[in-house]
Amino acid sequence: MSNPMRKILLYVDGSESSITAAQMAIAMAKSYGAMMKVIYVVNENLLNELLKARVFVQVEKMDYERDLEEDGRRYLNYISKLADRKGLKIETVLRKGVVHEEVAREVDEYGADLLVQGELGEVLSLRDSFYEEGERILRKASCCVMVVRGRDKIEKMFEAME
Length: 162
Prior knowledge:
Blueprint lengths: L6 E6 L3 H17 L2 E9 H9 L5 H28 L5 E7 L1 H12 L3 E5 L7 H6 L1 H8 L3 E5 L2 H10 L2
Parallel strand pairs: 1-2, 1-4, 2-3, 4-5
């Protein structure tokens, strides 16, 4: 039987749960002999909303956007090092735009068999569920989606992995 899991895409947002998801995705890629790519998206939608709401002016928006890009690069670099420690070479991509749209586009362009993401944010109302990016990614992705939780178990499994 051929390998059903050839390409895994990991979405990271800089949260603790996305690091847990990274450990799980690395373990799965290693176990299945799959290729793995990691995407981080600078949320331009949020930046534009903050500008529109006059939370900050254009210059501050540009500074904040640069900070978010640097954060994204740091997270992608950190996950690359985690994968390296386990003998796995990965690809990384930093995008800007509407998060769920960029992730869905990457799923299609990469030909991902599985999208892995961290635990969903807490949704306090039905309206919130339409704005929570993890939730929107679930609805938009054209492949299987794994939502990872259980930090302690996954950390132990990841550390025990050769």
